[in-house]
Amino acid sequence: MEAGRPVSLLKRGVDDLKETWPAEPDRFLEHHIDPFLLWCVKKGASDITFQSNRPVFSEIYGTLYPSTYRALDAADMAAVLVKLYGTEALAILAGGADIDLSYEVMTDRFTRTRFRVNMTAILADGRDGVQVTMRTLPSAPPTMKQLNIEAEIIANWKPRQGLVLVTGPTGSGKSTLLAAGNRMLIESLHGCGKMLTYEAPIEFTYDTIQAKRSLVAQSEIPRHLPSFAAGVRNALRRKPEIILVGEARDRETISAAIEAGQTGHTVYATVHTTGVAATIRRMVSTFEPSERTERAFALMETIRMVVTQTLVPKIGGGRVALREYMPFTEEIRERLLSLTFDQWPLELMQMVPKYGKTMEKAAKDAYDAGLIEKRHYLIYKQGTKQEGADDETETEAGGH
Question: CB–CB of 44/57 below 8 Å?
Answer without folding.
Answer: no
